[in-house]
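Human: Not sure, check this?
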Amino acid sequence: MTFDTHTPALLLMIGDHTWDYGALATVRTLGRVGVPVYVALADSANPVAASKYLTQAIPWLTTGAERDDDLVADIRRMCERIGRPAVGIAGDDESAVLLARRRADLADVLLLPSVAPDLPGQLAGKGALATLCRDTGTPTPAAISPASVADIQEFATTARFPLVVKNPEPFSRLVNRAVPTTTKVDDAQALFALLSEWQPGTPLLVQEFLPQQTSQDWYVAAVLSDDHEPAVAFSGIKRRAFPDATGVGTLSESRYNAELVDQAMQFCRNIGYAGVCDMDWRLDERDGVFKLLDFNPRRGAQFSTFRSTADVDVVRALHLVMTDRPVPPGQEVDGIRHVVGVLDQRAYVHRRSLPGEPGPFQGCSVERAWWAKDDPAPGLRFAAQLGPWGRLTRKARPQVIPPSTQWRQAVHSDPAPVPFDKPGPPRPVQRWRATMTVDGAPVLVLVAVAVGEAAVQQIKHECAARMWAVESGVAVPMVLAEGGNWMASQLVDVTESEGADYIDQALRAAAMIRGAISPPPAAVSAWQGSRRDRAQRLVRALIGHLPLREFFRVREEAASLPTDVWVHGDFSNANVMNSSEGVRIIDWEFAGPGIWGTDEIRLWSNLEYLQDREHLMTQFIDDLPVERRRDTGVLMHWLALRQLAENLAAPRRYQNPENIALGHMTLAEARAWRARLSREPAR
């Protein structure tokens, strides 16, 4: 067996996959045979990043709410970074769907199976899968994808309980969930209680649940070539899951079942599938029929359970097929167990009283989710993140009040609202892009929803501050509707925050704020970090080369400057939004008395291009009173240091190297500006 070690693999995952042991298994199985492996990761602290078999982790922050065009552009940039075509491997349903429907746009940079563009989306969507099963005569439990509450009521009168309720579609399960997770309900009362806040139009699947007492859960993992014939096909049984019955498999065992594999491969032929797949089947012992529950058009998290006597698993087989290499023949190795450590211990505790239940420790051939003797670092990192200190810090976090869903009644359910925030540190205010009717016409809006009592005050303050801003002549996105803990405002079609016109408009807005007659509503936030993690932030700042002596010295100097004007307080380019209609200012939580020039210099420190920073300072200095020049130099020095410190002190998984580089650059410029302003004669 010879692998093409000159053709790398690129593993893609959309959304948050911090503890995805399937990604780690992908890196290890290809790395062990010499194939370079690149992984797009949202978090540099991910245990996968510690694997010695990983060639490179490429930062990629996604939520599932992005446009296809933006995701494709990101993938192309990754491939340019790799420098040669790579075998594309989907790590989740969302990436599998994207790669299939945009295969033509990626054909020059990724090697991908030849599959119908819409087929993976149909297979990953539980409702469409049920339709495919009916069309091909493949057994599957009775299910419904309801369009209304009446549909659910009708199904509940004829279906056999228990039922299982799922988020059925890729992407929507990330950004518009009908239920928090796959949930089993035992009767109609529990069903309607679970769906009490479900909005028609939000994708949902309600399916008959085959009782555990009379059924067995099985996997089929396979790779099919472009002629829809299997290059490899394996099967196995799910011995335990957490949560029990509906959760992820925590103990799986390879066991070849020719009848099941033949049935699964015939289904793949009938629908014209090509590529890697992971299927969940349930053997209904009441009628002896295998019924298809799920079809994942990608490799499964537990794929390392299955391999042939030629030492080929589905990921290795996919790479061989995509690089036109023969897949060596071999039989499935029975009896390999895959264990998801801590989760399996919890699953065992729940099921230990059942007769014939496997024990908590496996004495046979075992594949572990995180630990490997030849690659211990990921397992150690996972243990550190899960260990006592991790649990202690999680317990120390304040409890939050779940966000309200009342706002959903004010917006349209079709199209469904989607999250607007990027991944990053937990935020006290959730933002959603939605549509609502204003003056009889549909309007795109941004809905801000409070999470916790402190955030409720932020929402109320933002509404009041925007009203004050309008009265002061400052342009803001208009608030169109509000509740006790949410508000909906105009969605600004944001353009790049750059150019002389943008800067001039921003400077005029800052001057209007400074010259306002009445004071803004009292600030509800302050520039002060948490005392609890001060030591960690200090260490990160030192590692990032923050000049600490200079930082503390200039901070003390800035503390003595007069706070005799009104300021926005966080006048960054993220809050001073550019658009075709002009500049719009948001996030007023820091507004209040401040130092002359705070807003202008805050914006200056965030501008990406040198010519924009120079234009801003030239305009600002021209209007700067002579008696303010020395203080402005001190303020520039301080805000540049503070900006750099903010970027360096963030946890590594949230750090942006480009922002850190900009921080070092603006600090050097601030030192020069301070020297110039301290000696420049009055004009």
